[in-house]
Design goal:
about 325 residues, alpha/beta, D-Maltodextrin-Binding Protein, domain 2, 2 domains, nine-stranded mixed β-sheet, 11 helices, about 40% helix, TRAP_TAXI, signal, C4-dicarboxylate ABC transporter substrate-binding protein
Length: about 325
């Protein structure tokens, strides 16, 4: 308790003395585990790195990864300072369940926005539901990615067990669908996902609804999976599409100093405007909603930031 009080006073004092820049954490450079190129994670990772350069005057590195699983491994093993991840993947990481070989020591700095599941097909395709994917050529996302975890659970809910599938990045999958080499691909990301929006400019697409599969998944995995809709007009869609929303968080190792976690959280909110300029999903970042990290505990340094910010007052 005394340590936390002393930390709070020190942070208030240094914050008050800051001029044009935020006070930096006690690190020499910042590494962010982001995602594949064309993803919202990657877009926001680049924007957050630029904010760190401007505010702290330190070098940064943004890792191109296969999404949540990779990010959690990088952070858990100390090879990255920050990482983006979906909460369902965080649960597996902390428990050390497949695809993780051991528990990952990660905490959250805060909730960000919700990733939406996209199951993309050509608009002229006869595939209208998940069950219609039987016998088709599909991509379920890169191996050991958050997309692949969700796609496997959706296919199991549709009783499509052991389906052959490709493991393509979102860029590769978009190109393959446009060329007619695959019939559908799964993607997990904010709305709009840049690469899918780019694809929709090239050819008409549809996104498959998953209401029945969602109900089954909620029965097994709880409210980690939420009922959400992609609105008409996005990706030039003509009708609303019922899909799955998955909250995501930004994570750090649980053993970093409280002051470091505090500074990271402070940067996140200071950079909100530039993050939103990079991608509109970042406009959802809010100190109240950021407290909702589901079963992923907040790092004590981040919790201190929110107590001082008093978002619930």
């Amino acid at each position: 308790m005394k340590r936390r009080t002393a930390l709070a006073l020190a942070l208030l004092a240094t914050t008050g003395s800051a001029c044009s820049r935020l006070d930096p954490p006690d690190i020499e450079h910042l590494t962010i585990a982001a995602g594949p190129e064309g993803s919202v994670y990657y877009t926001l990772g680049k924007a957050l790195a630029k904010a760190a350069q401007d505010e702290w005057g330190m070098p940064t590195h943004v890792l191109t990864t296969t999404e949540s699983v990779d990010n959690l491994r990088y952070v858990g093993e100390g090879e990255a300072d920050l990482g983006f991840a979906t909460v369902d993947t965080c649960v597996l990481a902390r428990l050390g369940d497949y695809p993780f070989d051991a528990g990952q020591p990660v905490n959250a700095l805060g909730g960000l926005y919700e990733d939406y599941l996209h199951i993309v097909v050509r608009a002229d395709s006869a595939i209208l539901a998940v069950s219609d994917l039987l016998g088709k050529v599909i991509s379920t996302g890169l191996g050991d990615s958050g997309t692949q975890i969700v796609s496997s659970r959706v296919l199991e809910a549709a009783r499509l067990f052991g389906m052959p599938h490709l493991e393509l990045s979102i860029v590769e999958a978009s190109q393959a669908l446009a060329a007619g080499r695959i019939d559908a691909f799964f993607s997990l990301g904010g709305v709009p996902t840049p690469e899918i929006a780019k694809l929709a400019q090239q050819l008409p697409i549809r996104v498959l609804p998953v209401p029945a599969e969602l109900i089954k998944m909620q029965g097994i995995y709880g409210w980690t999976y939420l009922s959400r809709s992609i609105q008409p007009g996005i990706y030039q869609l003509k009708t609303e599409v019922e899909t799955i929303g998955i909250p995501n968080v930004i994570v750090v190792r649980d053993d970093i100093p409280d002051t470091t976690a505090y500074r990271f959280t402070e940067l996140l909110f200071a950079a909100k405007q530039r993050l939103a300029q990079a991608h509109p999903e970042a406009g959802r970042l809010d100190q109240r909603s950021a407290l909702a990290t589901y079963s992923v505990p907040l790092h004590p340094g981040a919790a201190l930031y929110y107590r001082q910010a008093k978002p619930l007052v």
